[in-house]
Amino acid sequence: LPKECTSVQQCYVELSKQVKESLGKVDPYFQKLADAMVTWIEAWDELNPTTSKAESAAPNGAAK
User: Fold this and answer.
1) What is the distance, to the nearest Å, from the Cα of residue 17 to the centroid of all Cα atoms in its chain?
2) DSSP states along 23-53
3) Does Transmembrane helix appear among the keywords (predicted)?
């Protein structure tokens, strides 16, 4: 994985690209798997925002 990947999400998306490139040629299942991996990370990020995103979304800051 590239050094630019600094989070689990970035690593997982990069892994999905590698799955699609390397294994997608072997079986179409892996193309679908790679797409599903990206969808899963997008859903995870939407439902589990990072602390900084949650704080900025709250009108008066995060509750303490």
Assistant:
1) 11
2) HTTT-HHHHHHHHHHHHHHHHHHHHS--HHH
3) no
**Other CB atoms closer than 10 Å to residue 44's CB: what's the count?**
13
Q: Which amino acid is at 25?
A: K
- Alpha carbons within 13 A on the beta-carbon side of 62: 9
pLDDT digits (tens, 9 = 90+) for 5-64: 999 999 999 999 999 999 999 999 999 999 999 999 999 999 998 765 545 455 665 565
Q: Whole-angstrom distance between the N-terminal and C-terminal Cα of the chain?
A: 37
DSSP, res 60: T
Range of the domain at 12: 8-48
pLDDT of residue 32: 98
